Amino acid sequence: MNPTILKGACHCGAVTFEVETPPEPAARCNCSFCRRRGAVMSPPFLKDKLRVLSGESELAQYRFNSQVAKHFFCKHCGIYTFHQTRSNPDNWCVNLGCIDGVDAYSIDAPVADGASHSVVAKT
Questions:
Q1: With bands split at pLDDT 50, 70 and 90, how would you rate the model's confidence at 118?
Q2: Is-above-0.90 flag for pTM?
Q3: Is residue 56 part of a domain?
Q4: CA-to-CA distance for 19 and 58, rounded, in angstroms?
Q5: Between vectors from CA 110 to CA 102 and to CA 39, what angle results, nearest 5°?
Q6: The CATH number of the domain where 15 resides is what?
Q7: Distance (Å, rounded) from C-alpha 1 to C-alpha 24?
Q8: Contact at 8 Å (CB) between 30 and 113?
């Protein structure tokens, strides 16, 4: 079977990337961060399947709670592009809304229960 190479970019085009993953099965998440950003995420893949083609220096990173997951977004337009997962840091997902030719609204994307994952208490 041939791998699926998806090409994508942030809104302003400062960050472009390609990833070797099918777009489905997609997922949403109900954790506090994902609930607010509303993204539809690709199936998980290993980091070596993601290649930033341009604008790597234009990416900013956001971490919260356990500080394990790394969420990347464009410094200019603010669009979430991809992230390293908390539940398995070897896995990454891309925002399917950034992928060329993919209509994230037409994809069936069940909601993962990220809100029930352990929460690190603030001291």
A1: low
A2: no
A3: yes
A4: 18
A5: 50
A6: 2.170.150.70
A7: 15
A8: yes
